[in-house]
Amino acid sequence: MRHGLMLYFRLVGVQIRSQMQYRIPFLVEMASTGLITFASFATLALVFQRFEHIAGWNLGEVAFLYGMVETSFGVMDMLFSGFDPQNFGRQTRLGRFDQLMLRPVNLTVQVLGSEFILRRLGRIAQGTLVLVIALNWVDIHWTLAKLCYLPFVFIGQICFFGGLFIIGATISFWTLESIEFMNVFTYGGTEMMSYPATIYQDWLRKFFTYILPAVFINYYPALFILDKPDPFHMPAFASYLAPAAGFGVLAAALAFWRFGIQHYQSTGT
Amino acid sequence: MTPIIRVHHLHKHFRLTRNRHGLLGAVRGLIAPEYRTVRAVDGISFDLARGELVGYLGPNGAGKSTTIKMLAGLLVPTSGEIVVNGHVPWRERQAYVARIGAVFGQRTTLWWDLPVSESLDLLQHIYKIPAQQFQRNLDEFRQLLGLDAFINTPVRALSLGQRMRADLCAALLHDPDLLFLDEPTIGLDVVAKERIRQFIQHVNRVRGTTVILTTHDLSDVEKLCERVMIIDHGRLLYDGKLEFLREKFGGKRQLVVDFAENYSDAPVDGAEIAGRDGNRVTYEFERRVIAASELIGRLSSQYRINDLEVREPDIESTIRRIYEEKLLENASDAAN
Ligand SMILES: Nc1ncnc2c1ncn2[C@@H]1O[C@H](COP(=O)(O)OP(=O)(O)OP(=O)(O)O)[C@@H](O)[C@H]1O
Ligand SMILES: [Mg+2]
Predict the structure, then answer these.
(1) CB within 8 Å of B222: residues ≥ 6 apart
(2) Does A268 touch chain B (CB under 8 A)?
(3) Burial A102-127, CB ≥16 within 10 A → b, else e
(4) Closest by Cα among A75, B322, A163 to B330
(5) Going edge to edge, which strands form the sheet with B253-259?
(6) What is the mean pLDDT of residues A79-89?
(7) In whole angstroms, what is the distance from residue B62 CA to residue A238 CA?
(8) Do B42 and B19 touch, CB atoms closer than 8 A?
(9) What angle do CA A29, A39, A222 make, to 5 degrees?
(10) Distances from the Cα of A38 to the Cαs of A35, A59, B126, B234, in angstroms?
(11) Any chain B CB within 8 A of the CB of A177?
């Protein structure tokens, strides 16, 4: 366990050092991924020029939803790059996973350590910027409970998205074609979570409530922090479910991952 | 002594979905998929003693890589038993792989963007190799494999031969008991091949590492292995000394004779004339029919000879004959 952790930091350290070697491309790409994030936020802001509110949410409040998801997704994308389904699937076809299996280290640790994309800092920075703007625009009534809860919401979101990446990577043991399908959930999920749940059709909202518990990851915590009423009349604890839902999805993903490895060992590539 | 590897009735069957053509075929494939079974390894048994160096041969698709992957714990057999070093390879993966080394010729275990030396440093930590042991091994391998010329080059910039040398070093730093090599000389030039053969031989002789290697290059086998296993269609056709294989299936030896005068015909009992070129006549004869000395005796009593040379059948053509004419299959059928 300790060996695994030490090794993880060593592997990540090596990645960071080698990525820093190419400083100019690194900075350019970091700035551009950041700009894309910011541009899509700017588009959102433009929409608000015409409509003051979307489903009872003003621009500042939506910016809060948006900034939270962008930041946590960026962090996840940096930490879990090794599980990025497309990349993982391709690497596995090239025999990379066999090489990991030949080493006396936990496989999850090795995949996590196999890729660490520092450029994601661009996205994280822009996400944080949007969040800071939001906090400026919205007059949040901060309490101790809210302050303590916020980090857990972040961790829950990171676990949630990380879980989706792991599920996608695991599916790539079976097929590469369905990866696109998985992206619908990962990238569609982030997009969906950036807006108030009220704008979605009933069936879609139910799917993201009871099947893939995405609404508890961002929307409900935001209701709590922004002191907004719940239009769906869920029990009050719905707002505190973010960490549980995040860990739940991650735990389920890891169980599926172990099952996938067994499948891989019986079929090969 | 207990064998280091024990393989018993090993099977690996792959189930492939048969692709059907056209839209209708695709729909039918979804509803009632049709499977085809490939018996990649189909009932193989053998033992390996500690310190052996064995060549594992067979034509393309024979099941060599599949066997190596099962031995290395990458694949779980369909049925049968493997015990290596007291471990069942695919159970307790971590404990098992800590004691083996493996190189798959077309793959690298090194980090693509890192200099070789940094990759090797990482492996020290991965295998928890004590600093002294690591340094000692690294010094030895650097010298034997000539790594110094490219030890600071990123792996992606290495030539195939350099990469293979670096990979061999990487596979052995932790002093494994066993080394699995799947086509370690594939795509290399003669000089690089020779260097790698010498290294493998050194590791086996001096360090006592048990080695299994697959190859399509029979000179690898001739230079390195006393014992060979030949498989085809997932079945073991031959397991024994390379020497014996040549003796038994070697086909015909040749005797090339330069006569002192031009004989219009030069028949001799026990051999046939395979070709002639002026005064030079090539005879073919079989080991079990007549010995070379006997044949030379007969010839020199009948004709005036200037010079002669005995040519052994090369192992390449022997093995080609074995694959093509399925000699071993017939032999084992007869034995059963
Ligand atoms: N993961 C897999 N899924 C399905 N079939 C496979 C798989 N791996 C190997 N096979 C099939 O099993 C058979 C044996 O393959 P294997 O790679 O073991 O042969 P090989 O002896 O290593 O051949 P080569 O000399 O070409 O490397 C082949 O018919 C191959 O197509
Ligand atoms: Mg092969």
Answers:
(1) B242, B315
(2) yes
(3) bbbbbbbbbbbbbbbbbbbbbbbbbb
(4) B322
(5) B272-277, B280-285, B253-259, B305-311
(6) 93
(7) 59
(8) no
(9) 110
(10) 5, 15, 40, 58
(11) no
- Which strands form B235-241's sheet, in the order they lie side by side? B100-104, B178-182, B210-214, B53-57, B227-232, B235-241
Return all residues near A140 (Cβ < 8 A) that are at least 6 apart: A146, A225, A226, A227
Handedness of CA B112, B114, B117, B123 (dihedral sign): negative
> Quick one: which atom of ligand 1 is closest to the CA of B64?
21
Q: Is B97 a member of any domain?
A: yes
Domain that holds residue B299: 252-312
Q: What is the pLDDT of residues A50-59, one digit of tens each?
A: 777 877 888 8
pLDDT confidence of residue B326? 66
What is the per-residue pLDDT across B116-149, written as a single tens digit (0 to 9) for each? Answer: 999 999 999 999 999 999 999 999 999 999 999 9
Q: Give the per-residue pLDDT at B329.
A: 59
Which residues lie near ion ligand 2 (Cβ < 5 Å)? B 65
pLDDT of residue A189: 81
Report whether B211 contacts B53 (CB < 8 A): yes
Confirm whether B317 is domain-assigned.
no
For residues B119 and B112, give the distance between their C-alpha atoms in angstroms, rounded to a whole number.
Answer: 9
Percent of chain B residues past pLDDT 70, beyond the cut: 93
**What CA–CA distance (Å, rounded) separates A47 from A52?**
9
- Quick one: which H or E segment has residue B47? strand B35-48
Going by pLDDT thresholds of 50, 70 and 90, the confidence category of residue B336 is very low
Regarding beta strands B280-285 and B235-241, do their DSSP bridges make them parallel or antiparallel, or are they unpaired?
unpaired
CATH of the domain at B48: 3.40.50.300
**Which residues does chain A have within 8 Å of residue B114's beta carbon, measured at their own beta carbons?**
14, 18
Q: Give the pLDDT score at A1.
A: 75
User: Is B323 touching ligand 1 by the criterion CB < 6 Å?
Assistant: no
Q: Given the DSSP bridges, would you call strands B5-17 and B100-104 parallel, antiparallel or unpaired? A: unpaired
Band of the pLDDT at B171, cuts 50, 70, 90? very high
pLDDT at B34: 77
Q: How many domains does chain B have?
A: 2
Cα A267 to ligand 2 centre (Å): 16
Q: Is residue B199 domain-shared with residue B260, that is, in the same domain? A: no
Beta carbons of B83 and B6 less than 8 angstroms apart: yes
User: pLDDT category, A99, cuts 50, 70, 90?
Assistant: very high
Residue B64, ligand 1, Cβ within 6 A: yes
> Which burial class, exposed, middle or buried, applies to A267 when counting CB atoms under 10 A from its CB (0-12, 13-18, 19+)?
middle
Quote the pLDDT of residue A143.
93
CATH number for the domain that contains residue B305: 3.30.70
CA angle, residues A137, A142, A147, in degrees to nearest 5? 110
Q: Tally helices (H) and strands (E) across chain A.
A: 12, 2
3-state secondary structure of B262: coil
In a domain, B292, yes or no: yes
Ligand 2 centre and the CA of B328: distance in Å? 21
Question: Which ipTM score applies to this complex?
Answer: 0.86
Q: How far does the centroid of ligand 1 lie from the alpha carbon of residue B57, in Å?
A: 14
- Shared-domain flag, residues B125 and B270: no
pLDDT confidence band for B334 (50 / 70 / 90): very low
Does residue B16 line the site of ligand 1, with CB under 6 A? yes
The full set of domain ranges for chain A reads 2-262
Q: Within a domain: residue B322?
A: no
Distance between CA B309 and CA B302 in Å, rounded?
A: 18
